[in-house]
Design goal:
Six copies of one chain form a homohexamer. With about 280 residues, chain A is an alpha/beta fold. Chain A is built from eleven helices and 14 strands. In chain A, helix 8 runs parallel beside helix 10. The longest helix of chain A is centred in the middle third of the chain and has 25 residues.
Chain lengths: ~280, ~280, ~280, ~280, ~280, ~280
């Protein structure tokens, strides 16, 4: 009985956070270890479904690099990377779209449904959600795209009717050409278009570290105004640079709080939202 | 962090119960120690507000015997009891109504609001909620009433608009005469009228015991069909008899599950709803 | 038949006023003789219910001084008054709240229901309606409160669903402390918060008199701009001063017309609204 | 002031009737002296607008015999009558439709608007309201029609949006042929189709008289079961026969109460609805 | 089959126009040959019903000169014209109202219903739609009116409920006096009040011609800024002058595009809306 | 202009069909040549978008055999067929799901959007749309599934909000296992669950032929009661057998009319719906 009481008290401890986020929209970029580790994955599914049941509106944007790589390899299509971005020729684009929209997206939908939610998968083509264009007009990157416009009506419709949207980061132009867009960028653009209160980027690092070799040097709160200086100091560098930039753009677009958190920690999303301390690095004004 | 993880897991553990009870109506008879002990009281408030935030519709019916006794004593009004029911003359009725409707009811409302809810107090006069008549037509019991009819429209309006109704068990007849009605009876009648899924009676006992002197002899599940036999055996007796009868009437009126639980256990309501084992005695078909 | 015809013509005479006030909100401060005289009381109930049926939204705020005094006396609690306001210690506050919320409020609710309305009683605690604080920070007045904020959502919900709200002027602060607030002040604050078209204060005087000893010297219309001068001349003095100030505040807060009328006149409210001449003193821009 | 009080009391006297008829539908056949006498006409307009404002849904069906006769005369078109029904050839039909739909109907609409209502005129062609066919298949009566079907959707739309429908009794068949239908019959059919609570036929007689020469012999209540016997006795005869038959059909079609009242009495409709005694003859089960 | 295919392709060709006008409001002034030629008339009915079914909101305003003339002649009432406007004395006004509201209006309603629509006829009196006053204050023109105000609520109600409003251009003042108003002016005023996207005036000319004797000299697009110059050149003259002025007023009032088209061309409305070229003269910014 | 007139008349000719199908639901199984021929494909897109704009609710279910075959070949996965059904092992299932859900589905969505519609792609996993189980419990067929249950809520939500759902025939069981289901079967099951008025199966044959070698021997209407006899005669055989069975099941499930039509005919869907003759074979009661 004592243990049951502790459980009850923990539930009650969550009440202020539930109250605070009731009716709020939270965009979650889902990727990395939290997507490949079956055990972590199941916990993310539970976290997101719980969010919906306690009154929040989670919106999931996912990546899928490892699955894409595996399929490209099976098809003997070689990948070239420039500045960490995959050069996406027509053959690669076809595979990216199939793997993201047909396999990864549906697996997440299925997982959320199995955890008790009602999920609805879509790519940027559905409902004309993501209008895109070439990210690199030189053509050197192929069909790597950037977001030109988000049409959020379809998302409004589905979240108000109780569904959790799960979005593959594929954009489309007026010629029906598909584009492969970085999932962090899509998540940030959707957070802005949906007037989200929170953007959460799941990563495989503990957050922004002052000293990349020392996990105790976590920067818990990063102000937008401090970013430039940290970049110059080399604190924000490598893979963290585009992630922080995504957060900055979202904050500037009106998203209240953005978070870079460690998806390797079980229930990282829940911890961020329902506990006082939060986890990882928060980027805000 | 480890402790935070445990917290997250407990939250997730509650998910199936949250899902199961989403949109369901739960009538709670609030009284006894859970109302007089300040610490227990606060936990009840939290439990009820949490229920509302995770999508349930709690409806609270309260008693207030000790407060009434204290005020009657201060006013030098003597109380007589017959079969555990207070003989309610006009003077007593006035005090009962003032104390229940003006003091106890508003203190509960205030407590729920302070815990983050939106509560709305009412007596059976408000919106014509409880139509009553003499429980004892001989007149020997005075204005002790029984429920003639429940008009649930006002409850429908307030629960659909996000409020937690808190009800003082005062009935009224067509002559505007007030009646003092047992709170358990009112809770059962409202549970039936509101097509509630659950009726929870908070008491100061662990539930129905096979052997009243042995708390290990708890009867966890009591079928309606077993009641008569247990009454004849003397297992259901004393104060438990009317409580079990309330539950039976509610079950016969269409309420899915009814519970007699120990209000002295902190978070007893939450434990009943959100844990597998439940607590106290469940009366059902 | 001739008499029936006259009746029909009177009904038709009311048509322009019914049309004019259709859908409008009218806050009525109910107190004085209209509350203690059983015959007057019944007429007020009828007037208010009629208003609701012909399409207006009446909102009732009531006092209850005589009832409070009687109960304090029965409990041997002495009352001290400063500037006409009752010094309200903790014991007095408890009685005020019980009498207003548990007895007077419910009697009005019951009376409106008996006249064919659907009334819903509440105190300032219900739905967090009235946030209050000490009116006198010196503490000399005890728990005499002033309105800090009105949360009108609960009123919107109930009036749109066909109910007549009846409000006991009890406020509450964030510590759940109750405050005793002057009913005129509460009525004015609620009229402003609800964007009422009319505020009606029932009093035991014919209105504002130029010469307090001559009821023929009634000032029918008082412009807000004239108030200061009348105060200086001593025309607005004594108990009329706070009432006029309430009206001025309401007018400044956007309430179209405010009225100080004589509750001793049967159907005074109806006469004010449905006849050309009006009754008492109207305070307006 | 005394007179004002009497007025207030008369308003309050109407309250139970207002309450009783709130939301109810009342079909009024408007014709006879109440339509030709300018003074009576204005009173009918006021009565109907008042009904709308106090929450009823009046629906007006009108005749227009005298206006039709006048126009036919101006156009040198002779009228023949068989059993009190006008033989309606094509030329006559054109005039009937113009006069009823273009002149009489719009004059009533205009009068209701001037009295503060929002009226909407229509004929049976509008919204396909009245499907008709030859009343007399021999062709001897010309385009005298009978109601084949009522399509009440347009009426539902306009009454729920606050309008008073005013209906000219012109029917139409699938070939777009217009028919001249008796207004009493149309009123009865619409009362049935709209599930009206009341059908009121304005006539130029005091109601059904036991002795046609003695206005004191009024039959206040006529049961449907008594009709046949009264017809055989000759009590129901002449112009009263079709009117009583209309009422009987309406009652049999589910209309609660039907009334044949004297339109020459000022405010006859109001008196019928808002006074205890009623006026004229009520036909009911 | 080949012919069927062509049909399908024509349907598909209409798709961009259907899409473009979906939910848009189009006011059509219906008159001239399109109203007197039975064959043209039926095509107009079909065009308008089709517009409604494919998602537009057509609103019809009609004239009726020839029918009025015929009836005036039958009644031996002489007509005088000043500047092309009929001097409208009381007798004439009565006939105008009867013919327009009772005959022409209902014939159009009936025709639209027979073509599968749900039409609802009204004059400017219904719902208080058209408030009017003397167009000529000298009184020389009699009851020729001008639009003072449009109350579009009734139109909003009926178009949102699936009806096609058909409006006779009769206005009314606060004294219930009827006025005869030019239908083009009424159409323009309603287009402005309803925030229509298109105003279409059906005429018996091909549009505005540079050279009135040469139908090949059609001016397809007329900018508002060019009007004055064309008037001075005499290009816009005679009956075209008031029509162009109507269009200019509508454009200045916010109507996107206005069209003067040749009602003698079968399906002229449909051609204007559903084909690339349009027909007649478009007046726009 | 003459040609334009013909166009207008064809549009008008479609009016009765538009009226008849307004608000109706039509499930279209899209596959075969209409999906592989770029020109036919574009016409199907236009047809479906047009249906939505004129008030119908088209729902698309698609196959994708050729695309699946191509990808299986590229991945060196061999396909085995039993009775025309692909034995679907785990590797094949993965490819089926990727190709159908990620490529074919999104290409159709994109095509409908480019034609002016708002399409939303989904598989049977989205919103838990298609619950499936092994079609062949022996396991010989692998993950070939049959429909156990359709959860149509997600479809209701999206069609009422203006979207065209496009469904890949992938089912899922409670263990998150994917199943490959025949698209005709899915279309029939969805037509039943959505209470569709019409089910249209696009094929590469002209319909059911009496003599398979003679396209003039088309059976235009096939009654459900005639099916057995035709099967015995061998008229319904081969690939037509399961298609006819789908239609029969749909008809028995309450779908009004079902059609097997020739997708190789341009605009076949439009012709079926908007022309009198229809095309292909209709299966009905």
């Amino acid at each position: 009985m004592k243990s049951a009481l502790e459980k009850a008290e923990i539930l009650v401890e969550a009440l202020p956070y539930i109250k605070q986020f009731s009716g709020k929209r939270v965009v979650i970029k889902y990727g990395g270890a939290a997507m490949t580790d079956e055990c972590l994955k199941q916990k993310v599914m539970q976290d997101i479904v719980l969010m919906k049941y306690v009154g929040m509106h989670p919106i999931v944007v996912h990546g899928g690099g490892p699955e894409i790589n595996a399929m490209l390899k099976r098809l003997d299509i070689e990948s070239h990377f420039v500045n960490g971005l995959r050069v996406t020729d027509a053959d690669t684009m076809e595979v990216v779209e199939m793997v993201l929209g047909g396999k990864v997206n549906k697996a997440i939908v299925s997982g959320l449904n199995a955890s008790g939610g009602k999920a609805l998968g879509m790519s940027g083509k559905d409902g004309g959600l993501i209008e895109a264009d070439f990210a690199d007009t030189s053509g050197a990157m192929g069909f790597v795209g950037e977001v030109k416009n988000i049409n959020p009506q379809i998302l409004e419709t589905v979240i108000e009717n109780g569904y959790i949207p799960v979005i593959a980061p594929i954009g489309v132009d007026s010629q029906q050409q598909s584009y492969n867009i970085n999932a962090d960028l899509v998540a940030a653009a959707i957070a802005v278009a949906m007037k989200a209160d929170k953007l959460v980027l799941l990563t495989d690092v503990p957050g922004l570290l002052m000293d990349a070799t020392d996990t105790d040097s976590l920067i818990s709160v990063l102000k937008v105004g401090e970013v430039q200086s940290y970049v110059q100091q080399g604190v924000i560098a490598g893979g963290m640079l585009p992630k922080v930039q995504c957060c900055v753009e979202a904050v500037q677009g009106g998203v209240g709080r953005t978070h870079i958190i460690d998806g390797r920690v079980p229930h990282a999303i829940l911890l961020e939202i329902f506990t006082k301390e939060g986890v990882g690095t928060m980027v805000t004004w």
